[in-house]
Amino acid sequence: MTTKRTEIVIIRLTPDEKQSLLLRKTKPRLAEWLRELALGQKPKRQPKSVDPALLFELNRIGVNLNQIARHCHQAPVSMETVNIALALRHIEAQLREVLDRAD
């Protein structure tokens, strides 16, 4: 059973400060978000909106990489296959950097 909240805390904000809080909150209710923030519970980050064109291009790249990887796994191992695998790892690292910058 949860404890009922009976205590009230009032704070004064400027209109700009209030708007800033409303824009930054990651919960539907401002009070819930402020409680988590103030009491040390880590508020969950809300994902940022991402450019749909970027997602589309990343998806296309991923599909191409999967096709290359599938081909490498079906073909006998050769030096060319090893070089392709190394190139794929390099591309994967670059894609991860792009995704990290998007966060």
Structural features:
mainly alpha; about 100 residues; NikA-like; 2 domains; about 65% helix; MobC
Detailed description of the structure:
The chain has 103 residues and is mainly alpha-helical. The protein has 2 domains: 8-46, no CATH class; 52-102. Helix content is 64%, strand content 0%. It is built from 4 helices and no strands. It has helices at residues 15-24, 30-38, 52-74, 79-102. Helix 3 (52-74) packs antiparallel against helix 4. The protein is elongated, with a radius of gyration of 24 Å. The model has no long low-confidence stretch (mean pLDDT 83). It comes from Gordonia cholesterolivorans. This is MobC. Pfam families: NikA-like. InterPro entries: NikA-like.
Rg over CA atoms, rounded to whole Å, is 24 Å
> Spans of 5+ residues with little confidence (pLDDT < 50)?
none
**Approximate helicity band:** 55-70%
Largest sheet: none
Give the amount of beta strand, in percent. under 5%
Distance N to C terminus: 37 Å
Global structural class: mainly alpha
Shape: elongated
What's the total count of β strands? 0
Mean pLDDT, rounded to whole units?
83
Helix and strand run: HHHH
Number of helices: 4
> How many discrete domains?
2
InterPro entries: NikA-like
Organism: Gordonia cholesterolivorans
Protein name: MobC
